[in-house]
Specification:
This protein is about 30% helix and about 25% strand. The chain is α/β, with parallel strands linked by helices. The protein has one domain: Class I glutamine amidotransferase (GATase) domain (Rossmann fold, 3-Layer(aba) Sandwich), CATH 3.40.50.880. Helix 3 links the parallel strand 3 and strand 4. Helix 1 packs across helix 3.
Length: about 300
């Protein structure tokens, strides 16, 4: 079933070429079912690329989804045309009275700052609090996962000696959890970050469950006891060449100061990377949509409450 998006969104053409089922607004209004309302708070500077990556995963399920893209009203976006934001995005102030089945919050290149020093921290924490009563389930990715863990549970982020980047193997610790249903015991996923969330800090919080971790990359997947908040410290949504482009960007400014691990064949950046994480990425998002959102959300969104 399709993801419902505006007909002129740039991601549409690429997704259709990949046989991802997308549906324009005009076609969707003629169907007599309620689509899931999913908001995506896109904090990434490369917003258009991130849109495509997330829509690719959300569009591969038997569910019709209506997407609302959000950007920070308190932050000036420099890498995305203002015309694109005006055409396809809303701000928190514009949707704060609405309710959603699900919310995705993305990573952001601000992890070396203290949380409170990020210029949109106040607005982000407002969104976190709003989601408690206006969103049924939230999926936090990378930096926003760290931010949400810190805001709700006081879990700190810890700086690494050098950037952790590459593709790492992860072990499922709770195989009966719905969010990892169908996963292999071990699965790969990309990471790209300068900080980490430590397992001992997660295990010290009674309301959190550590679902998957990596011997090399550490904590990967955490949920709350009620499974309504999912925290993913990596980037399963990344394309084959996303890490490659990040590495080339960092190399262009001098010595990048880190090695890209388990990514380039023969560890040679001149080789085209293989994509090994796509199937589990699709499964993670399908499980979230099915078990945390579709199977749980009330038909009348006014009935949403986390309290």
């Amino acid at each position: 079933m399709p993801v419902k998006i505006p007909a002129n969104l740039p991601a549409r053409e690429l997704l259709e070429k990949e046989n991802i089922f997308v549906m324009t607004d005009d076609r969707a209004v003629h169907q007599d079912i309620r689509p899931l309302k999913i908001a995506i708070l896109n904090l990434m500077p490369t917003k258009i690329q991130t849109e495509t990556q997330l829509l690719r995963l959300l569009g591969n399920t038997p569910l019709q989804i209506e997407i609302t893209f959000l950007h920070m009203g308190s932050h000036e976006t420099k890498n995305t045309p203002k015309e694109h934001l005006s055409a396809f995005y809303k701000t928190y102030s514009q949707i704060r009275q609405e309710r959603f089945d699900g919310l995705i919050t993305t990573g952001a290149p601000v992890e070396l700052y203290d949380f409170e020093k990020v210029d949109y921290w106040a607005e982000l924490t407002d969104i976190f609090e709003w989601s408690e009563t206006h969103v049924y389930s939230t999926l936090h990715i990378c930096w926003s996962a760290q931010a949400a863990l810190y805001h709700f549970f006081g879990v700190p982020k810890v700086s690494l000696e050098q950037k952790l980047a590459g593709v790492f193997q992860h072990e499922i610790l709770e195989p009966n959890e719905p969010i990892v249903r169908g996963f292999d015991t071990w699965f790969p996923a990309p990471h790209s970050r300068y900080t980490e969330t430590r397992r001992e800090d997660i295990l010290a919080i009674p309301g959190l469950r550590l679902i998957a971790e990596s011997p090399e990359a550490g904590v990967f997947l955490v949920t709350t006891e009620d499974r309504r908040r999912i925290f993913v410290t990596g980037h399963p949504e990344y394309d084959r060449d996303t890490l490659k482009r990040e590495y080339e960007r960092d190399t262009a400014t001098g010595n990048p100061g880190y090695l890209m691990q388990n990514y380039f064949p023969q560890n040679d950046p001149r080789n085209l990377p293989e994509i090994t994480w796509r199937s589990h990425a699709h499964l993670l998002y399908a499980n979230w949509l099915n078990y945390s959102v579709y199977q749980q959300t009330p038909f009348d969104l006014n009935g949403i409450s986390l309290t």
